[in-house]
Write the structure tokens for this entry.
Amino acid sequence: MNPKKLFLYLFVTSVSLSALIGIGVILFGNFGDLEIRVLLTTLTITVTSILGLACGAYLERTNSQLGLAGIIFAVIGALLWLIVIWQHDAWPSELYMKTTGTATILAYACAHLSLLSLARLEKNFAWARLAAHVLIWLFAGFLIFIVWAEPVDYELISRLMGVLAILVAAVTIVTPVFHKLSSVQSAADIEAEIARLKLKIQELEEKKAQI
């Protein structure tokens, strides 16, 4: 099973479980500590599945290290959050929570870039991909800096975060538009598509031989 299918099944399962818990709470009115932990667990799995789907799709198409790194960070972040959710004794240490936040931010950055990198852009629009990498990694690095340094100048931090968030949103919006406007595939894209189709044909031939 490839990563994309695995995260897709996890996503469907977690959403279904969350729906069942919500229905149970509405019908029976019992929302205790266990139900909260289970609901947070399904929410964690859902978010992890979304991040993994984005990275898995990019990994499947390009075999890029970015997609693989995103999957690894998403899984690590999910495991760390699950420990937080199910820990009964005491709140985790500050170092543990900062590490958890860092893994989550890196997973988001990889997933975001994986989605945007799926866009096929003409040379005239290639700057958008570079801008996306620069801005998203800059935004992720800024968030990680906030997590670890805990700066006290909240006004300056909020202003910088707002500017970066707007720039990231802008490049996220224009990239699909440029993808739509790009009608010509590059030679590298064509070669990658041919390789993907050859691999798919080989898989189908193997399945056919097993029937």
